[in-house]
Amino acid sequence: MWEFSKSGNTIVRMLEHPILRQAWLALRDADPTLLAMAGVTFLVLLVALLPRRARAPPDYSSADFWEQRYHTHPEPFEWYIRHADLAAAGFLTPQMLRIDGLALLDVGCGNSGLAEDMHRAGAGSGVGGKGVRIVGIDFSAAAVEAAQDAEAAARSWSIEEEEEEEDADGGGGGGGKKRRKRVSKYRVLDARDMRGAFADGSFDMATDKGTLDGIVGATDKCCPARRDDARRVVAEVARVLGRGATYVTVSVTDWSLPKWRTWLGLEQHFAHFNGARIGAQQGGKTIAVFVNAWTRLGGGSAADGGRGNDGDEQKKTD
Predict the structure, then answer these.
(1) CATH topology of domain 63-162+177-317
(2) Burial class (CB in 10 A: 0-12, 13-18, 19+), 268
(3) pLDDT tens digits, 51-98
(4) Which residue(s) pair with 30 in the sheet?
(5) Residues pairing with 282 in the sheet
(6) pTM of the prediction?
(7) Which residues of 87-97 are buried (b: 16+ CB within 10 A; e: fewer)?
(8) What residues does each domain of the chain span?
(9) Could you tell me if 193 and 240 are in contact, meaning their C-beta atoms sit under 8 angstroms apart?
């Protein structure tokens, strides 16, 4: 009761001020409609002047974010640069992709056309051998579904099984060389732990186009948990690559700089041997994209048994 009386006395004293008293009398005698309009205008101005809460950036490390994005936008989307840009800079060239029996892992494939483009570039591979095998993985089921749908629409290569057909020079007599169709598979898989899917040294090459970027986010604001996740991906990629295999990273951060090599644990598993900075159009502006190639140090070898073990694993997990 005392508090109420105290507040009332404060209001009375405020109204005794000449300017406030004149304002109160003007409001009391004003037209109700004009008074209501003035009140609404005041509220609108008040809301406009209030400090706005900063909009949180997308959490690219979250599988839920990508599930929603790929459900909403299932059409193919190319992050940063296309395969043609990489090949022009000397990375993943048709000559490399035509190596007979090449096994390549596309880490965080999304619904990019990278795997499809690499298959097209390596169309001359596989004569008299096993042909190139590309496996695209992503922890988003919606992304994998979108990639499979785009692949099926392209119909440029098989994803179901390997099929042999007569080489054009062989005619129908059966004396020509056998050419094995190119094969690729997309799989829902978390790159932080691929032990249940791929044996050590299963691949000769791996590509990462923006995957580490998505995990880390802004490097100047990265929390320890995200860095640990990124280091786990690097370690797992190193594990599934054979000795001397190649790891190609495409990023808006130059991972080849000494501080980032240490930060991501790259220097523990890889030696850097080539890099390029490419200008790319993204979101209506030109950005710098850093492409780096790394050689696997030590580890298992896909050529001396690793891929054979992977074949056994594939039978278990496909």
Answers:
(1) Rossmann fold (3.40.50)
(2) middle
(3) 666 666 677 778 888 899 888 988 888 889 999 999 999 999 998 998
(4) none
(5) 285
(6) 0.70
(7) bebebbeeebb
(8) 2-49, 63-162+177-317
(9) no
